[in-house]
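Subject: mismatched residue count in predicted assembly?

I count 674 residues in my input, but I want to confirm that the predicted structure covers every chain. Input:
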Amino acid sequence: MRYVSTLTVALTMLLSTAAARAADPLPSWNDGPTKKSIIDFVARVTKEGSPDFVPPPERVATFDNDGTLWAEQPMYFQLLFALHRVGVLAPQHPEWREKEPFASLLKGDVKGALAGGEPAIVQIIMQTHAGMTTAEFERLVKDWMATARHPTKKVLLTDMVYQPMLELMAYLRANGFKTFIVSGGGIEFMRPWTEKVYGVPPEQVVGSSIKTKFEMKDGKPVLMRLPEINFIDDKTGKPVGINEHIGRRPIAAFGNSDGDREMLEYTAGGAGARYCLLVHHDDADREFAYGAASKIGTFSDELMSEARGREWTVVSMKNDWNRIFPATAPPPDNAGR
Amino acid sequence: MRYVSTLTVALTMLLSTAAARAADPLPSWNDGPTKKSIIDFVARVTKEGSPDFVPPPERVATFDNDGTLWAEQPMYFQLLFALHRVGVLAPQHPEWREKEPFASLLKGDVKGALAGGEPAIVQIIMQTHAGMTTAEFERLVKDWMATARHPTKKVLLTDMVYQPMLELMAYLRANGFKTFIVSGGGIEFMRPWTEKVYGVPPEQVVGSSIKTKFEMKDGKPVLMRLPEINFIDDKTGKPVGINEHIGRRPIAAFGNSDGDREMLEYTAGGAGARYCLLVHHDDADREFAYGAASKIGTFSDELMSEARGREWTVVSMKNDWNRIFPATAPPPDNAGR
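Triage response: the counts match. Full output below for your records.
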């Protein structure tokens, strides 16, 4: 009896190992050169004794967020949060009724408000993201994110993450990689939910930030958020942010726009096996289709040429992904798009 | 036969678990209230179901470096590196012979050079730490650290780390903590060796920094180190650096000077069980004895009062530690001190 039980355990273990091996780690990726390139890269860097072997501590993979891990249309979701905050705060700011970009926003004219370009956006961010403690800001983001829905697709924003990218991050982690987010978005806007949504803890999130100041408030030590830019984690800022926060050059990087170019160049520029990938939004039916003409998340023709020339992988969302959003998300309603 | 073998495996496992439990995780700490306070804290936060239980991802412990993890007398070891670099670079800088603080340094008058205070130190740092790529700087630090010895004790600087603190870090990690260094020292001066010496990977090191700039050098993407301060990770800067890099409030913090005060206050100010500890250098025979009178690493009377009032643990190196440096280090030669 004991013998049988031991044998049963041994057999079960063998079988489940085989099953695990046989299971596809990237089921939402269609078979083809894109999926194969990912699996080949992981096999090369994890095979001990191979010339491309990379020890686990050096298996650093960095992911852009907006447009790479979740959607970014019709505008960055952080901007939706800022617009929501403008509405909440408006009663305390009667002067906004006469002052741009707030006056347009309060009339519902988002396009008019953003016509002021970056200075307008900075003003909106400073009014809605500063002047409170880091803990208070975290609470605002958490509460908003729990119920915030996409303006046209109507699903929760946290359901607008890309299922194939979730699988890719999990697959890399299962192979000894540490996954980091390196985004132009606000570091403190992302941290309250990245662990739950992506499995990426706060200390592995790199992003743009405003300055903070240590002070005693009602006898309690807090960090106050100041209306002053600290760091912009975009374009040439991405390698700078990576070096400052991670201190190692990534061996794999994932992006979707010109803002990720330098991160990919920096990653590709290291010695040994490297993997660079760009997500191309070419699926108007299931998500959005946009490129250089878009006001945000540009994927310029120059970037496409560079990607082709350097043999970076370019994902066609339409052809490479058999599913865009997680199965738990309700089917998107495209009617309003 | 199969039965015996299963039983043997089970017994061996039980016995080695018991042995592991019985082994003292902090052998270089003398029994007493200090050691007991550490072990009690770890037991409280790791016991599932207890009101003080903290889930592993939130078990963040931050450690100052100079004077907390390794020695800092007669001057910060990073300054020894800078002085070494001044000597190496002097032939390319004939103007230094007439220009302070370099003129004094080149005559061997360190005290005279440092009489210029912080501006003099900043000048020395910028001349020796900037104007190269991050990879070149890393190489310089690694090469120097491999052979650099203490000016009077003559042992390798990497052997002047505190064995009790190495044990403490390993003990915390074995209990699900993530250990971070949060130092006023240069982040890129520490990262090349903290993983080997302390078991702390580069992405868990927070420190002061100068600005870097992404550029193409000979067709390769690099980060150039600029002669401009980016961030000073000291005093009120420590909670700011912790929030920026880690994004969570630590539940345990370890320091040794007034520069660590705000880090300890910030740590203690969170909800739930907290542990704060200050190392007091009171062992002139085995290490150094210094306090407020010292030019560096001050532990003021005010800090001591605050520590007592807040019930932070104060380590007496003389009484609480039965060993200061690792057994692998040759016995220190105190003759020259």
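The radius of gyration of chain B is 22 Å. Marking this ticket as 'not a bug'.
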